[in-house]
């Protein structure tokens, strides 16, 4: 499958029409876009934080369901998340809980991760990171 896991920040750039979204267009063209359940949750938290009303929330939900395949947690993903967290801890390079879910999603699907936060993921063994900054 020609696909990529898309990090929360890239989706945010697209939603907000941030000019940085253009940096990632070539990483996303002709690919199925996969979104970790964690990114889905983070985007909804952001909408709640900024007090989005029902019409705007509905627009967000429609965009996400029409544009991305959401990958939800199962036993395999939970084990991979635990492995990622522990591997990073052992290296002395702690990874945020949310980022570990996103990295684990890309790893179990054997897909690259498109992110604007290269440094958050650079130390995750076996993860292919596609980024235009911090490399």
Key traits:
five-stranded parallel β-sheet, 135 residues, 53% helix, Rossmann fold, single chain, globular, 5 strands, alpha/beta, 7 helices
Radius of gyration over alpha carbons?
15 Å
The fraction of residues in strands falls at: 5-15%
What kind of sheet is the major sheet? 5 strands, parallel
User: How many distinct helices?
Assistant: 7
SSE pattern: EHHEHHEHHEHE
User: How many distinct domains?
Assistant: 1
CATH classification class: Alpha Beta
The order of strands across the largest sheet is 3-2-1-4-5
Low-confidence stretches: none
Please tell me what the overall shape is. globular
Query: What is the number of strand segments?
Result: 5
Helix content: 40-55%
State the gist of this model.
The chain is an alpha/beta fold and 135 residues long. 53% of the residues lie in helices and 12% in strands.
Provide a descriptive summary of the structure in words.
This protein is an alpha/beta fold. The protein has one domain: Rossmann fold (3-Layer(aba) Sandwich), CATH 3.40.50. 53% of the residues lie in helices and 12% in strands. It has seven helices and five strands. Strands 3-2-1-4-5 form a five-stranded parallel sheet. Helix 7 links the parallel strand 4 and strand 5. The longest helix is centred in the middle third of the chain and has 16 residues, at 75-90. The two termini are 26 Å apart. The model has no long low-confidence stretch (mean pLDDT 95).
């Amino acid at each position: 499958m020609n696909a990529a896991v898309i990090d929360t920040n890239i989706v945010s750039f697209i939603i907000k029409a941030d000019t940085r979204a253009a940096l990632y267009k070539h990483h996303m063209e002709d690919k199925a876009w996969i979104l970790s359940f964690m990114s889905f949750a983070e985007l909804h938290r952001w909408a709640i934080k900024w007090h989005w009303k029902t019409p705007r929330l509905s627009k967000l939900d429609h965009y996400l369901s029409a544009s991305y395949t959401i990958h939800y947690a199962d036993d395999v993903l939970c084990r991979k998340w635990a492995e990622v967290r522990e591997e990073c801890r052992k290296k002395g390079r702690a990874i945020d809980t949310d980022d570990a879910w996103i990295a684990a999603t890309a790893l179990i699907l054997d897909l690259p991760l498109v992110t604007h936060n290269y440094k958050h993921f650079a130390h995750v063994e076996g993860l292919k990171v596609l980024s235009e900054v911090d490399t």
